[in-house]
Every structure is written in structure tokens, then in C-alpha cells.
Design a protein that fits this description.
With 379 residues, the chain is mainly α. It folds into two domains: 75 residues, no CATH class; 197 residues, MetI-like fold (Orthogonal Bundle). It contains 13 helices and no strands. Helix 2 packs across helix 4 and helix 8 packs across helix 11.
Length: 379
């Protein structure tokens, strides 16, 4: 006797993707969050060490304190020599009054405390981006707050760096792709021959450009950012700034163009001999598709790294370039602060450069993951 069992309806099968997806998302988020936190902590510690070393170097082992004390005594002495009441005092009273004024001024500058204590205070203020007041420099509005001094000079530097880097990046990639398609011809050999000229800094090219286009041909201005008096209408002002921007931008491009083309052209040649590129050619894909999809995209992480390091170098290399062209940016401010021994401004500008470097290094890892699907953050 056979017993028949009723057919039991099987439970609905849950797709495997739906069961593992939340866990996978959670693990991915935790991995990225952990990596981001550790990366931020390591970069932040590096910035703190670099900033503290800068504070120690900027003080020159206490030598700057002696210079400031000497300037305070000289300034107070000049003021008191013009004071009739002071001149009528007896020598002992004069000396006592002079020392009291010097002590009060040194206390105002914080010189009454040891440098070891003040250096930690400088470091804490630097971390909080509280740069205090400058000793001798002032902003365009007359304020001595270091923050306002930097903000006044930040715009011109961003304009110069942005214009030169955009032209350099896209121009170098376009020319490198063209040379990789015509390996060994006249233009390829010409670029290789000119690549050692990139060893010269941008300010070096700036001197020759000023001599040729400003002194001899008189086509472009010697320096500055705007004519005096400046144009009244907005369009004229923009065109005038653009005219002053030509020579410094050209100097920066010339100092980095040929070596960038040579480096990236070499990467393109290496990737153009890969098997998947030969397969794409066999399928009959156009040269444009092969260039952008099979050669340019795999090399983007390397190109981005090279370009990011180039930008970092330009931030610090613009110090002398802005000085040559009298460009009113952070570089020229740095030169002025060093000449005046204005320690708060020097430390503040160094901190700005350190933060820019840290941000660039931090963002690079995420850019790699965006342009290259083989890269996983924190894997």
C-alpha cells in the first residue's frame, strides 16, 4: 500500500545577490571608513611633525628672538628720543623707564616666555588655523591678521596655478597621444631632444621671457597683475589681468611641458603594445577609440600621480616665479615675510602648503578608484 504525501510547496528562493548584498555593502563601507580614518590620522600626524619642524627652523634656534628684541629696543629708543619729558629725566630714571617699555613690548610679543613653550602654542594655533597677527606685514586693507594677509594673496596664486596647470595637463596629454601614434618621426625626436630643458625652473624661463617680450618687443608688461590705474569696466579689467597672466603662465608651462610629454608618451607607447590593444586593432576599432579606451584609460592612474606631484611642486616653486614677475600671490608674500623675519606669516604659509600637500595625497587614492576599476580603496 503506497502512501502518497501531498506536494509541499517549496519556500520561495531568495536570490543570492539579495542575501549577500547588505553584508557586502556593510563590509565595503566598513573597509572604506577604516581606511579613510587611518589615512587621515597618518597624514595629520605627518603634517603636525612637518609644521613643528618648520616652527623650529623659522625661529633659527632663538636667533629670530634676538632680532626681534633688537628691533623692539631700536624702535622704542627712536620714539623716546623724540619725547621731551623723557629727555628731561635723570639717567637712572631714563634707563628704568626704557627697560620698562621694552619689557612691556616683549611681553606683548610673547618674548617673556621660553621658546619651547611658545613653539607648542604656535603648533596648537597652527592646527586650529589660528595664525594670529603679523609682526610687520599687513594686508591690502591694512589689517595685520595673518589670515587676511593670506586671503588677499590666495586668489592671484590660485589663478596662476589653475591656468598654467590646466593648459599644461591637457596640452601634454594631447601632444603625448599624437607622438605615440608617430613614434620615431621628426617631432618625436624633437620633443626628446628638448626634454632636458625642463630641468630649468620656471623663474629661469621667466627672466628670458621678460627680456624678450617686455624689454625688447614691448608686447607684454614686465610684471604685476594689473595696470596702474586699472581699467574701470569689468571686461577691460579681465583682459588686462589676462595680458599680465601670459608671461608667468608661459614660463611655468615651458619649464614642465617637454618632460611631461616625454614621460606620458613613454607610458602610451608601453601600453600600446599590450595584447588587448592588438586585439582591438584586429576587431577594426578606430584609432580614436583605441587611444582613449585602451591606452589612455589604463595609464590614467600614473598620469594623475605624476600631475599631482607636479602641482605640489608648482605650489612651492612659484615662490621665486611670483617674485620675478611681481605677481601678488602667496609666493611673493613668502619672500617678503622671509626678508622681514615675520615668523607668523612664514609659519602660516608653510602650513598652507603642508595642508595642500596632505589634501592632494589624500584625494589621490579615491581618484585612483574612480578612474581604474581594478583599484579598491583599502583592499
Amino acid at each position: 500500500m503506497s502512501v502518497t504525501t501531498p506536494d509541499l510547496e517549496a519556500p520561495p528562493s531568495v536570490p543570492q545577490e539579495q542575501t549577500t548584498s547588505p553584508k557586502r555593502k556593510t563590509s565595503t563601507f566598513a573597509r572604506v571608513a577604516k581606511y579613510t580614518l587611518l589615512k587621515m590620522v597618518s597624514i595629520f600626524l605627518s603634517v603636525i611633525i612637518a609644521v613643528y619642524l618648520t616652527i623650529l627652523i623659522a625661529n633659527m634656534g632663538g636667533y629670530v628672538d634676538q632680532i626681534v628684541r633688537g628691533q623692539i629696543r631700536e624702535f622704542i629708543g627712536q620714539q623716546l628720543r623724540a619725547d621731551q619729558n623723557y629727555q628731561q629725566m635723570d639717567p637712572a630714571a631714563k634707563n628704568e623707564f626704557f627697560l620698562a617699555q621694552v619689557e612691556r613690548a616683549e611681553k606683548r610679543y610673547g618674548l617673556d616666555k621660553p621658546f619651547a613653550v611658545r613653539s607648542l602654542t604656535f603648533l596648537w594655533n597652527a592646527i586650529r588655523m589660528d595664525f594670529g597677527t603679523a609682526q610687520l606685514m599687513a594686508s591690502d586693507t591694512g589689517s595685520r591678521q595673518v589670515k587676511l594677509i593670506i586671503l588677499d594673496r590666495l586668489g592671484p596664486t590660485l589663478l596662476l596655478v589653475g591656468a598654467s596647470n590646466l593648459l599644461l595637463f591637457f596640452g601634454s596629454i594631447a601632444l603625448a597621444l599624437m607622438l605615440s601614434r608617430s613614434y620615431g618621426n621628426f617631432w618625436d625626436k624633437l620633443i626628446i631632444g628638448f626634454s632636458p630643458t625642463s630641468s630649468a625652473p620656471s623663474w629661469f624661463y621667466g627672466l628670458f621671457l621678460i627680456l624678450l617680450f617686455a624689454a625688447v618687443l614691448r608686447w607684454l608688461p614686465f610684471g604685476g597683475m594689473i595696470d596702474s590705474p586699472p581699467p574701470r569696466d569689468q571686461l577691460g579689467y579681465i583682459l588686462n589681468v589676462g595680458k599680465h597672466l601670459i608671461l608667468p603662465t608661459l614660463a611655468i608651462i615651458l619649464s614642465n611641458l617637454f618632460i611631461s610629454i616625454y614621460n606620458w608618451r613613454t607610458f602610451f607607447l608601453i601600453y600600446s603594445s599590450e595584447d588587448y590593444v592588438e586585439m582591438a586593432k584586429a576587431k577594426g576599432l578606430s584609432d580614436r577609440d583605441i587611444q582613449y579606451r585602451y591606452i589612455l584609460r589604463p595609464t590614467l592612474p600614473t598620469i594623475i600621480t605624476s600631475f599631482a606631484l607636479l602641482v605640489i611642486g608648482l605650489w612651492t616653486g612659484l615662490i621665486l616665479t611670483e617674485g620675478v614677475f611681481q605677481w601678488p600671490g602667496l609666493g611673493r608674500t613668502f619672500i617678503t615675510a622671509i626678508g622681514l623675519y615675520d615668523t607668523p606669516v612664514i609659519v602660516a604659509l608653510t602650513i598652507i602648503y603642508a595642508y595642500l600637500l596632505a589634501i592632494t595625497v589624500f584625494v589621490l587614492d579615491f581618484v585612483y578608484a574612480l578612474v581604474d576599476p581594478r583599484v579598491k580603496i583599502g583592499s
